[in-house]
Design brief:
By secondary structure, the protein is of the alpha+beta class. 33% of the residues lie in helices and 21% in strands. Strands 2, 3, 4, 5, 6, 7, 9, 10 and 12 form a nine-stranded mixed β-sheet that branches. A two-stranded antiparallel sheet has the order 1-13. It has a two-stranded antiparallel ribbon with strand order 8-11.
Length: 355
């Protein structure tokens, strides 16, 4: 007899911090991180790896990463535990103040050990900037929050452990002596290229140690309409250095600091403080270095900006069919969704998917 308890693939009771038998585990924003984790596990069960976007010789390169390599544990194993909106212990040593929560922490529950912390961005394909193009040029928006930049800095700090490691980091960053007032736009702009080059030197040094940071599943619609395409779902994973490279590829302005430039400055300040003091004050850096830009997000990259990096056959034609959604959302879980967000709404309004 088929189990009619609402659930998600690979996240049975006891394997997740969320109880999918309860309606409140299907609400706004919750579904947008829990469904992608099960999508990764489902793809792993079918021997389909995610597209891994990483830096190679300073350039963006696509490779693949399995669900097991991404989560640092077999997601189908009873040892795997999906912990959502949780602190990731490995980052705690690098920054001071209140600890930030990351979207998903994978845990080996047999060892009671945190394995990896990941940010999850479920994105529509195409976005508003590319919906009028042909499907080979569809792109999706990527919105990154300030805490993600804190986590990015932590992943880099993790390559420079101890006093000796911090000295290497400090030497790589150099000393930009000419800047006395880092919070002032006029003081920063003449030396932004020096700041970016310093961060780039660090990135080049740790290239062989880069790690997954953002999991970006895409769900494809028919030209931006609320109708799922048959070739519907796939997963892209951005390494920490690929996210950094995305910011650097957008170029610099001469008369203002953009969100992308500000992100690079934040990372420089976080790494420099860590190299000197052993920790950085993430919230103070963000607060004092806003440059007249709201801090609600670090940056957002439109489909026009992400497409050159993400373009691939998997982006044009995602590998998971819309008819497979019923293999990921289980036991009538779709009936507990509230159509508050686009993907939820499309599923709710597509009952034929579950026939």
């Amino acid at each position: 007899m088929t189990d009619q308890t609402p659930g998600l693939f690979a996240q049975s009771k006891g394997k997740s911090s969320r109880d999918y038998s309860k309606e409140n585990s299907w609400g706004k924003n919750i579904f947008n991180s829990s469904f992608p984790a099960s999508l990764v596990a489902y793809m792993y069960s079918k021997n389909i790896s995610a597209v891994y976007i990483k830096s190679e010789s300073g350039c963006i390169h696509h490779t693949s990463i399995s669900g097991e390599d991404l989560f640092k544990i077999n997601p189908l194993s009873d040892r795997a535990f999906f912990n959502y909106e949780a602190g990731f212990s490995s980052f705690d040593q690098f920054y001071e103040g209140e600890r930030e929560k990351i979207d998903l922490v994978m845990i080996n529950r047999e060892l009671n050990k945190d394995l990896i912390g990941l940010e999850i961005k479920l994105t529509a394909l195409p976005d508003t900037t590319t919906k009028k193009f042909d499907e080979d040029h569809y792109g999706c928006e990527l919105v990154v929050r300030p805490p993600t930049i804190c986590f990015l800095a932590c992943t880099i700090c993790n390559s420079f452990i101890g006093k000796a490691g911090r000295q290497i980091l400090k030497d790589l960053l150099g000393d930009i002596r000419q800047i006395n007032h880092w919070e002032e736009i006029e003081a920063i702009l003449p030396y932004y290229e020096d700041i970016q080059n310093a961060v780039k030197r660090v990135a080049d040094y740790v290239e062989n140690q880069q790690t997954p940071l953002i999991v970006q599943p895409v769900w494809k619609t028919m030209g931006g309409k609320s109708i799922l395409a048959d070739d519907c779902l796939d997963v892209f994973v951005w390494s920490n250095l690929a996210v950094l490279k995305l910011c650097m590829l957008q170029g610099a302005e001469k008369k203002k600091i953009t969100r992308f430039m500000r992100t690079v400055i934040w990372i420089y300040r976080m790494l420099f403080e860590y190299s000197v003091y052993g920790q950085f004050d993430y919230k103070r850096i963000v607060r004092l270095h806003s440059y007249n830009i709201a801090n609600d997000k670090a940056f957002s990259a439109s489909g026009l900006q992400t497409w050159p990096i993400m373009k691939s056959k998997e982006l044009s034609h995602p590998r998971i069919s819309k008819w497979e959604i019923k293999n990921i959302i289980l036991g009538g879980g779709q009936n507990l969704l509230s159509p508050e967000r686009r993907f939820d709404a499309v599923i709710v309004n597509s009952p034929d998917l579950f026939d």
